[in-house]
């Protein structure tokens, strides 16, 4: 009986080893479990990765659906919301992009990415005064940002074009 108990305790002790001398996850040693917090890839990131590539390839409809799927995984993800809103803008789906920007304002409203994207969205909608407000705010956040400067130039050029909708061009 004692021999069986001794054999059983040795087997249990050896089963806690992983072969490298360290104990496995069943061990009480803190250094035996691996830290995976610095992983760069998660399966739930697939829609985001594909959405970014599709957006860069100007496949806005497909990018829109990928970013929407990414939001199904994490509805508060600023990167997914930004991609979703930008894709919706390029499709003219302002009924979808405006609520996304409203949610983004609460999350990252003071960041240059938000200000540039929101300004561009308003520019596409014909709201030049609102676009100017966001573009100037983006430029104030980072005067060396090339995109912020380009957006202001784009706005300046847009004022010279004919009206696209009622009341969109007023003295800035």
Core attributes:
Serine Threonine Protein Phosphatase 5, Tetratricopeptide repeat, 8 helices, 172 residues, elongated, 2 domains, mainly alpha
Overview of the structural elements:
With 172 residues, the chain is an all-alpha fold. It folds into two domains: 43-108, Tetratricopeptide repeat domain (Serine Threonine Protein Phosphatase 5, Tetratricopeptide repeat); 111-162 and 168-172, Serine Threonine Protein Phosphatase 5, Tetratricopeptide repeat. 63% of the residues lie in helices and 0% in strands. The protein has eight helices and no strands. It has helices at residues 2-15, 46-56, 60-73, 78-90, 94-108, 112-125, 128-141, 146-159. The longest helix is centred in the middle third of the chain and has 15 residues, at 94-108. The radius of gyration is 26 Å and the shape is elongated.
Tell me the layout of helices and strands:
Blueprint: H1 2-15, H2 46-56, H3 60-73, H4 78-90, H5 94-108, H6 112-125, H7 128-141, H8 146-159
Helix pairs in contact: 2-3, 2-4, 3-4, 4-5, 4-6, 5-6, 6-7, 6-8, 7-8
Short account of what is shown:
The protein has eight helices and no strands. It is mostly helical and 172 residues long.
Low-confidence stretches: 22-33
The CATH H-level homologous superfamily of the largest domain: Tetratricopeptide repeat domain
User: Whole-number average pLDDT?
Assistant: 79
Outline type? elongated
CATH architecture verdict of the largest domain: Alpha Horseshoe
**Using only CA atoms, what is the Rg?**
26 Å
Strand content: under 5%
Count of discrete alpha- or pi-helical segments spanning 4 or more residues: 8
Specify the biggest β-sheet. Answer: none
* CATH secondary-structure class of the largest domain: Mainly Alpha
Structural class: mainly alpha
- Classify the oligomer: single chain
Percentage of residues assigned to helices = 55-70%
Spell out the helices and strands N to C. HHHHHHHH
Number of domains: 2
Structure summary, number of beta strands: 0
Query: What is the CA–CA distance across the termini?
Result: 94 Å
């Amino acid at each position: 009986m004692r021999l069986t108990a001794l054999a059983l305790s040795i087997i249990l002790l050896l089963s806690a080893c992983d072969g490298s001398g360290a104990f496995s996850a069943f061990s009480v040693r803190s250094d035996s479990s691996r830290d995976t917090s610095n992983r760069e890839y998660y399966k739930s990131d697939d829609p985001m990765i594909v959405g970014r590539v599709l957006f860069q390839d100007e496949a806005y409809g497909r990018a829109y659906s990928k970013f929407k799927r990414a939001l199904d995984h994490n509805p508060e993800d600023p990167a997914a919301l930004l991609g979703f809103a930008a894709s919706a803008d390029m499709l003219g789906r302002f009924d979808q992009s405006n609520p996304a920007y409203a949610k983004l304002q609460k999350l990252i409203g003071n960041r240059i990415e938000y200000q540039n994207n929101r300004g561009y969205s308003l520019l596409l909608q014909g709201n030049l005064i609102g676009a100017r407000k966001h573009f100037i705010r983006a430029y104030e956040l980072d005067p060396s940002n090339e995109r912020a400067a380009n957006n202001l130039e784009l706005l300046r050029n847009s004022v010279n074009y004919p009206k696209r909708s009622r009341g969109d061009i007023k003295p800035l």
